[in-house]
Amino acid sequence: MEKLKDKIVFISGASSGIGKACAEAFAKAGAHLILCARSTDKVKAVARELQDMYKIEIVSFGLDVQDKKLVNAAIDNLPEKWRKIDILVNNAGLARGLEKLYEGDTDDWDAMIDTNVKGLLYLTRKIVPFMLKNQVNGHIINIGSIAGIHAYPGGAVYCATKTAVKFISDGLRMDLVDKPIRVTAVQPGMVETNFSVVRFHGDKQKAGSVYAGIKPLTAEDIADVVMYAASAPPHVQICEVTVTPTNQATGGIVYKENVNLH
């Protein structure tokens, strides 16, 4: 993807899963990367691996996007040449718990709202003005979820946060309609990453049962979709992509082979 060579791409939540897969895909295309994640050690390890493999430039640092002051400081402290960001991939996000709304843990709610919604807003608010100032053909790619389209039992708050991602993307696209900046919302269905491990607070057995009997998407599948949107000609805006495994129709309608669902 020659058109992405030497672009500067900022990816949040880049230490694992979809964020890491996107980082590798952009690195392979010759882009230079700014990578952040809550785990400093993990994101720096990803950066070292990609630098060695693809001989690109990478800036990496630990960042919890829930903290507005830390986000502002991290972006403000970027060297001038790294402020010429072409593509922002708002990937940092999480789900916590699967209880009924009236039994939910309010700390879990705070984590989801502060990361999935406010963190995305904080990064977007800081980086889009750079794109406008530098007059680049910019691109904001927000990783949402099919949960933002179809609610499911036990997921009310998570689904609400991903609905917010969809409508923030739509609204931002309207705000930028007279600018050379595209906005894409990618809405995956079931993707096997550490997502469910986080949702179930580290219970790997419970997390594994989510994907039993179905071939889920991989992080690399979603990275392929991100790259498709990012590599489209500048006059082409992929507004929204919803992608699921073949045996998933909505967030709650899934066919699992040889699995007793009752």
TrEMBL record:
Keyword Glycosyltransferase part of the UniProt annotation: no
SUPFAM superfamilies recorded: NAD(P)-binding Rossmann-fold domains (SSF51735)
Keywords: Oxidoreductase
Gene Ontology molecular function, alphabetical: oxidoreductase activity, acting on the CH-OH group of donors, NAD or NADP as acceptor
InterPro entries: NAD(P)-bd_dom_sf (IPR036291), Sc_DH/Rdtase_CS (IPR020904), SDR_fam (IPR002347)
Signal sequence interval, chain numbering: none
Any Pfam family matching the protein: adh_short
Superkingdom of the organism of origin: Bacteria
Membrane spanning stretches: none
PANTHER family: ALCOHOL DEHYDROGENASE
Family: Belongs to the short-chain dehydrogenases/reductases (SDR) family.
The protein's name in its UniProt record: NADP-dependent 3-hydroxy acid dehydrogenase YdfG
Species name: Propionispira arboris
